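Work Package 3 (structural annotation) set out to generate three-dimensional models for the target panel prioritized at the project kickoff. During this period the team completed the workflow that converts sequence records into discrete structure tokens, so that structures can be stored uniformly alongside our sequence database. As a representative example, we reproduce one entry of 153 residues exactly as it appears in the project archive.
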Amino acid sequence: MAAPRPDFGILLLLACQEFVIELRAALAAKGFTDQGRSDGYVLRALGAAPLTVSELAERLAISKQGAGQLVDDMERRGHVERRPDPRDGRARLLHLSERGTAALAAARRFHAQYERRLVREHGADAVATLRAVLTAMAGADQAADPRFRALYL
């Protein structure tokens, strides 16, 4: 009797978990041993442009309080800085610190290296197909949403 095929959803989950484990190990090897679960989203969002806490909360689809807690933690760890908004003296804009910019660059390098490794191991056509399937699963509208497009860069 043949072994049952692994559940598709579980395979997706396991693949994502392994990707994150490898990403965290690569970042730790570069000195970024203090990465939080949501840091990547915040780093990419602020890497695209400075935002207020409210704008960040909207971008991440979380409460303003939740975004404030993320920012407080990332500021404490030296990844984010708050600066006055030149357009509104009452507002504060979130910027990546030098450390945050370096962490984002290291993560982007890992992402590119990971994909190149997949191409070497499975071929360019297989990786292109995987990209197409993942894009379809996420939804073309989601993939094209300007809020998320900034995260790709």
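The chain has a mean pLDDT of 90.
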